[in-house]
Automatic annotation (TrEMBL):
Domain Zer-1-like leucine-rich repeats region intervals: 191-332
Pfam families linked: LRR_Zer-1 (PF25013)
Gene3D superfamilies: Ribonuclease Inhibitor
Alphabetized PANTHER family for the sequence: PROTEIN ZER-1 HOMOLOG, PTHR12904
Segments of this protein annotated with the region Disordered: 356-389
Superkingdom of origin: Eukaryota
GO CC annotations, alphabetized: Cul2-RING ubiquitin ligase complex
Bias (Low complexity) ranges: 367-389
Protein name in UniProt: Zer-1-like leucine-rich repeats region domain-containing protein
Amino acid sequence: MASDSPESLMTLCTDYCLHNLEGTLCYLLDNETLRLHPDIFLPSEICDRLVNDYMELLNANSLFEHNENFFTLFSDPRSTRLARIRLREGIVQDQDLEAIRKQDLVELFLTNCRKLTAKSLQTLGSFSPTLVSLSLFGCSNIFYEEENPGGCEDNFNPSRQVLVKGFTFEGFRRLRFLNLGRMTEGVNVENLLRPLASLTALDLSGIQLNNLLFLTQWKDTLVSLVLYNMDLCEEHIQAIAQLRKLRHLDISRDRLSSYYKFKLTRRVLNLIVENLVHLTSLDISGHTMLENCAASCLDEKVGQTSINPEESSITPFRNLKRPFQFLGLFETSLCRLSHIPAYKVTGDKNEDQVLNAIEAPTRSTGKKSPLGPSTSSLTSPGSSAATRP
């Protein structure tokens, strides 16, 4: 549905400048390279908007052409300031991050930037003193580097990509939010994360880990944990139950994937409810539910639907002190029960549940779809709608 509200002056000006860089903010140096006019200073509010809207135009408008010099416009922090930017898809390359390495970034969200390599890991180190939020979701090549840069002269032994295993987040002392979704297989996650003493939100979606006990090092700080599409086991749940400060937990999964063996039982849900007493948001979408989670017809309260935990049709949730703010039950049998103790529920029982599934946030865009993981605004400090990239 089209909005009746007119576009803001900021939106109109940004769009015009991006379509007419040479005639507004920039000039051509040597008739080929864009440069900012020397008398221009752009604060972070404007620079962030220019970069983020530029990325949106590239992904939404096939007629909008990418300028290879665009990111060099923000290379000098004396004339431009960047703080919070979101870069996505294959247009972003190592040299683009290198161009802005002198900026004091607070938030850097990289989504499906498959052209980024280990060269960008070195660039990330430049942002470590100021970076609070970082997403590397879907950046599948960022832990690879060329074994023999430049290749060989005889072309019989061309350069090949090898996995970088020594990188850690040492020095990222301010980092609170980290999204490593779909990270390259073979990277030692525990060693990679060990230096992050103050982590509050972590997304490890699509990563298969045998042991989650290392997460307990953040049992006093972690408030949001997303493990979408992780093949869980009892040991995983035992480790998660020790994270007693958690307010948002996402262990949902794609129901179409057939390799999952783990099933949710009354015992597992009881463990979550009894130990994670601060939990306000829980997503268990896509899980196979055993019948012992639901109350029998004789045991269920009759009458108008209720969100009161004491009347819950999901038996383990009767021990909740208060209803959930959000409960993800999409593609589970539990969404069809009568009394669900949550203000917002995703599922396929009725229109409200389906709309909630569409409106809830997703990892990569800040909006949720039934096919992706959920997250609350807890996930990204400084952001009104966090990723569930």
